[in-house]
Amino acid sequence: MTILKRTLIVLVFAFSILSGSAFAYERVVVLYAAASPVLKELGVSDKVVGVTRTDHTFRGVTSVGSHLRPNMELLRALRPDLIVAGSKRAFPEEMSNRLNARVFYFDPRTLEEILQRIKSLGEILGAQQQAQALIDRLKEKLSEVRPLEDKPTVIYETSARPLKVAGSRSIITSIIEHAGGVNLIKVKKKHVLISPEKVVSLAPQFYIYQVGPMNKNPLAPEKRPYFGSLKSHVVKVDEYEFARPGINAFQAVIDLNRIFLEVLK
Amino acid sequence: MIELKEIEARQGDFILRVSRLRLKKGELVAVLGNNGSGKSTFLSVLSGLRGFTGGYLLDERDFSEYPLIERHRIVSLLPQHSSLNMPFDVHYVVLTGRYPYTDGKGYSSVDIARTEETLRRLDIYHLRNRQFNELSGGEKQRVLLARVVNRDSPVMLLDEPLSGVDLRHQHEIVNLLEELSRERLILIVVHDITLAVREFERFLFFVDGTLKYDLKKDELDESRLSEVFQVNIRFLKEGNRVFVYTDGIKKEV
Amino acid sequence: MRDKSEVRSQESDGVYKDSSTFLCGMKPALILLVALLFGITMLATLKGAVSINLLHMTDTERDILFFVRLPRVLLSGLVGSALALSGLLFQYVMKNPLADSFTTGVSASSAMGAVVAIMLGLGVLIPVFALAGGITGLVIVYRISSVKGRVQPITMLLAGIVLSTFSSATISFMKFLSDDAVSSIIFWLMGGFQDASLRKVAALFLVVTGSFIAVRRHYLGLDILSFDDTTALSSGLRVDRLRKEAFFLAALLTAFSVGYAGIIGFVGLIVPHVIRLMKFVKASELVPLSVLAGAVFMIFNDLISRTLLSEGQELPVGIITSSLGGLFFLYLLIKRKRELYYFD
Asked: What is the distance in angstroms between the Cα of C41 and the nearest Cα belonging to chain B?
């Protein structure tokens, strides 16, 4: 009896895996804009049927609203079979169950994880070769990084008001490390609300602040009252390039490495 | 002290009319009339809280010439209903009656001394540390009266100061007011005609917003009173005391 | 001779006092609060994410102490005072224990102004926009609630609630329009003192001191405002003028606080109530004690918000004010609810 039951379970399990991998996803909705360039590189643009409002990677694709609050009617009308989402918090699994679609979480915290996610996406979309080619290209890109004698210390500001900096769980820490530097903020969070005095006392060699939707028109750090005694090199970067865990992150590494080299020369 | 000429005050459909009236220092005047006859409106006109047309001389000077604070030093008013939404103690409530004499920042030692005196005079000294809002209705009324008495103003307008007050304290208050009125003009709205007839010398009767009669004590008679109150009023004289009783609703003729 | 000197001392204070009815007198309370304020200011200046050895300060540490930490401590104290005073004034004007900068809609409309500034990418102008928003809110509520030049307390409260709701809805809508700026807006609405500077401290100091001096002139009038209008008017008080002035000062204090530190709820409601529950009910006691207690409370909250977590991490100060303040308030309410307030 138990043997029969077990066999049945194994059979069902095997079948579901087989059918899962054999099933080629045809209708993809991307709810996390950082993943869109990856899909484009994988050559599956024609399979993408829906994106978020701010995502302009693909042409002629339905916008389903914001990444935190997509319009469920629009989503359902698109009849997706795969949803690429940023995190479980942004798009819980129950929601994809209601849509009868598989959900793929594109949530890398390091460059290595980005490569991994690219590989997985290539597998489930039947584009393994393109994925491998992209991975090779990105790895090659990383080889452009020039070595530095000392590791420059860095603090990266994600938002000025309130003052938040990138913690160790942010993709930015990985970008900094690959560029040859070290993030002085070790807190195990993506964004860390921090005391300005802590930043001053850590005295990083580089103070990088991003400008973008998270940090709209911030006051330049050297003009802020609490940074009067900050002696770091202040660098302004684009949020889209640095803070998004996608293909862009590799270019960010190269750019940051170049900045390090120039300043430290 | 007070001279009124062709006074008119409007509020919606209601019009208060006083064609001519002279009130002197040293008088204790009862203001009588049915509900809505204009007694309270009359007092609020006299204290300057309500706009009016006509002539109002206070101490032979036009009322409008007095600065606001000066008016309230001369004329004090006990409103018919008062409320307080802070847990002040009795002493402080009475002390606030001295407000027109202050600079707005604090009360002087004179104000405090007067307050002590007033508290004793109105027999509420023992209540002085109690919270005003925890007192009974009659006690509250005595405290509010004390607040007005504490102003020590030449003209005092009291709207039903005796309502809810027990008999003993009614007597004490009336005695006190008689004493105070020697140096002042005091107007009192009362509903108890027996008490009014017994204790006061001059009577103002309001009917439908108009000052109808201004009578001395010996001018009072059954028919005029019956007309004003629309009930049959009878006098019962016993020696030089007069008792007033009512005998059914007056039929319109 | 002796009597006379006693009389003079009462006169020079200009304030009536009778300590027998209180748990403790005004003077001890005042001294206690001043000492507390001094102590908490010292503690908050010495404590922080970075530990500083006062005897051997490096240049950086000196900079941190004087240009980062001290302005922050001072700003938080001043915001605490401003919110406590504005809450108290709103309560007097509206004769309502629930009135404060939130219920009148002035906080929310200030915040709306600030959020508009964020949305337009004019982060630098946030205080200006907050002020504009707050005063617009004030004018709207005032216009709606005044009939023939008279402010109707109940109508004002209703108008305030409507304005608050409308402002919150507008803020939510703006949040919706820009997903990415969400964290910025949300945090900003919770308030904080990171952006403190000596310039802001100086500006707020002027506003708070100016308001306090203006309110001092009306101590007795504010008390008389607690009576019904007829009683107050017949006491010779210019009721509407005082209401207008108090309302304006309260709005000014709120707008500056929101502009410099975001919305920090609860302080304006809780601080005056705590002082009242300690049996200080006259304006001459309530106002100075609330101003001091507001500063102590806020400095303490900010100290916790920036030292509770390790590695220089901070907590939004609103979380601390609401939880600490809420618990303490609840305790007092349960203990002494009967004495809290009287309604007609």
From this structure: 30
E strands within B43-184?
Answer: 53-58, 61-62, 75-78, 155-159
Are the Cβ atoms of B81 and C228 closer than 8 angstroms?
yes
Mutation target vs A (from C58, C197, C307, C313; most A CBs, 10 A cutoff): C313
- In chain A, where does the domain assigned CATH 3.40.50.1980 lie? 19-141, 153-264
In tens, the pLDDT along C52-69 reads 888 888 888 888 898 899
| CA angle, residues A93, A97, A98, in degrees to nearest 5 | 120
Q: Does residue A20 surpass a pLDDT of 60?
A: no
Give the domains, in start order, of chain C with CATH numbers.
4-340 (1.10.3470.10)
Contact residues, chain C, for B105 at CB < 8 Å: 14-15, 216-217, 219-220, 284
Residue of A nearest to C62 (CA): A229
Q: Evaluate whether the domain defined by A153-264 bears CATH number 3.40.50.800.
A: no
Report the neighbours of B using a cutoff of 3 or more CB pairs below 8 angstroms.
Answer: C
Q: Say if C344 is an interface residue toward chain B (CB within 8 Å).
A: yes
The pairing of strands A191-193 and A164-166 is antiparallel
C177 interfaces chain A, CB cutoff of 8 Å: no
Whether A211 contacts chain C with CB within 8 A:
no
Peptide bond into C71 cis (omega under 30): no
pLDDT digit string, tens, across residues A80-127: 999 999 888 888 888 778 888 889 999 899 999 999 999 999 999 988
ipTM for this prediction = 0.91
Residue A58's identity, in one-letter code, is F
| Nearest Cα residue to C20 out of C326, C279, C310, C338 | C279
CA A130 to chain centre: 20
What global pTM score does this model have? 0.85
Confirm if A206 and A154 have CB atoms less than 8 A apart.
Answer: yes
| Contacts A159 to C, Cβ<8 Å | 183-184
C-alpha dist (Å) from residue C88 to A128, C153, C162, C329:
68, 15, 21, 16
Concatenated DSSP letters of C53-68: -TTS--HHHHHIIIII
Tell me whether residues B88 and C282 touch, CB distance under 8 A. Answer: yes
Question: How far apart are the C-alpha atoms of C29 and B30, rounded to whole Å?
Answer: 49
Residue A203's pLDDT is 92
Distance CA B49, CA B41 (A): 9
Could C124 and A229 be called an inter-chain contact, meaning their C-beta atoms sit closer than 8 Å? no
**Cross-chain Cβ contact C235/B89 below 8 Å:** no
- What single letter denotes the amino acid at residue C58? T
CATH level 2 (architecture), domain A19-141: 3-Layer(aba) Sandwich (3.40)
How many other CB atoms are found less than 10 A from the CB of residue A46?
9
Give A182-233 pLDDT, tens digit per residue: 999 999 999 999 999 999 999 999 999 999 878 877 888 998 888 988 889 9
Question: Minimal Cα distance from C189: which residue of A?
Answer: A162
C18 and A CB contact within 8 Å: no
Residues of A in contact with C124 (CB under 8 A): 217, 219
Is B84 in Cβ contact with C14 (below 8 Å)? no
Chain B: nearest CA to C272, how far in angstroms?
Answer: 13
Closest CA to C140 of C170, C114, C161, C125: C161
Q: Which residues of B130-155 are buried (b: 16+ CB within 10 A; e: fewer)?
A: bbbbebeeebbbbbbbbbbbbbbbbb
